[in-house]
């Protein structure tokens, strides 16, 4: 049974609390029949104190739409997501994220601790990921301390962890959940570099008894499956395509957009451009130079990893593997690394 826990000192509910709470409850009942993890309501005062009034020194990341702040509450660090402005669509995305994450309990999914419903657009509170996001580490290559690069072993471990998480949301929830925005910027890393899949604001469930769902296109250009762009039709295979693009980032240290520009300059399709390096025994030219090794076993692992990218990004969805099959393949590569 769902439970919503409000702080005891908050006896006088506000207009926003009532409005957002009613909306959230309605969505919980529709999406998971009211069965969800407990959701804590943080007060405005608690979050102001935790973030030192949202001081700029507490900013972890900022985008056009929201800012992530580091906070400290009840002797633990937290991450606070505060949207910019009072756009109704932000409220819808916040509530959607709460609904999705209230059904999920997985070590490789960023845990939602609660939210503040007392503001026009709810504020979300998560566990703290001390090492930032994966995009910073493999694309911008910042924040690695004494390590100038992220090792192949670390990249493979991160890929396997996120594959586990996506496989979980596809198969272990009451209705399959499609994330819709898998990319390195949405992979956070905790103090031990355990990867955490984050940002479920675009996520959507496939109705019971159905094999797909139709919706307006959401996500990040370069990571969106072609059939979804063409038809608005979504299956779990759309996430497989996005995950293949994440693997591409891990392998090359480049974004799909930067590789697409290179392909465009040669007047060939982006994925054909990538596949040409595999087919013509030129993998070394596209693999991030910081992880390339001449050792034969490592080269075989990189080759297998690259071939997995190709299968995940097949144009026809039915030709892509399931995320369970992807996870199995990544574990096989890991076992070769640690026989």
TrEMBL record:
UniProt cross-references to Gene3D superfamilies, sorted A to Z: Phosphorylase Kinase, domain 1, Transferase(Phosphotransferase) domain 1
One Gene Ontology cellular component: plasma membrane
GO MF, one example: ATP binding
SUPFAM superfamilies: Protein kinase-like (PK-like)
Assigned keywords, A-Z: ATP-binding, Nucleotide-binding
Keyword set includes Zinc: no
GO biological process: cell surface receptor signaling pathway
Domain Protein kinase: 54-339
Protein name: Protein kinase domain-containing protein
Organism: Kingdonia uniflora
């Amino acid at each position: 049974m769902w439970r919503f826990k409000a702080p005891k000192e908050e006896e006088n509910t506000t207009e926003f609390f009532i409005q957002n709470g009613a909306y959230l409850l309605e969505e919980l009942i529709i999406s998971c029949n009211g069965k969800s993890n407990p959701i804590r309501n943080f007060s405005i005062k608690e979050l102001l104190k935790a973030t030192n009034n949202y001081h700029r020194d507490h900013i972890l990341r900022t985008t056009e739409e929201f800012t992530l702040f580091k906070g400290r509450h009840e002797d633990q660090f937290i991450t606070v997501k505060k949207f910019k402005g009072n756009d109704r669509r932000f409220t819808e995305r916040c509530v959607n994220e709460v609904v999705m994450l209230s059904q999920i309990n997985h070590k490789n999914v960023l845990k939602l601790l609660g939210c503040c419903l007392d503001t026009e657009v709810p504020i979300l509170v998560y566990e703290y990921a001390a090492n930032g996001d994966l995009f910073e580490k493999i694309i911008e290559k910042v924040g690695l301390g004494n390590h100038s690069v992220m090792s192949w072993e670390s990249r493979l471990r991160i890929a396997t962890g996120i594959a586990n998480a996506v496989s979980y949301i596809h198969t272990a929830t009451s209705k399959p959940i499609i994330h819709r925005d898998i990319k390195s910027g949405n992979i956070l890393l905790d103090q031990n570099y355990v990867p955490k899949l984050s940002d479920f604001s675009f996520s959507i469930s496939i109705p019971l008894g159905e094999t797909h769902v139709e919706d307006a296109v959401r996500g990040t250009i370069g990571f969106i499956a072609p059939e979804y762009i063409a038809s608005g039709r979504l299956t779990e295979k759309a996430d497989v395509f996005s995950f293949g693009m994440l693997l591409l980032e891990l392998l090359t240290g480049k974004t799909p957009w930067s590789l697409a520009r290179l392909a465009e300059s040669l007047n060939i399709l982006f994925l054909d451009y990538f596949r040409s390096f595999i087919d013509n025994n030129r993998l070394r030219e596209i693999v991030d130079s910081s992880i390339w090794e001449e050792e034969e076993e490592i080269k075989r692992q990189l080759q297998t990893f690259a071939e997995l990218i190709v299968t995940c990004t097949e144009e026809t969805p039915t030709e892509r593997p399931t995320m369970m099959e992807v996870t199995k393949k990544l574990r096989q590569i890991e076992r070769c690394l640690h026989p």
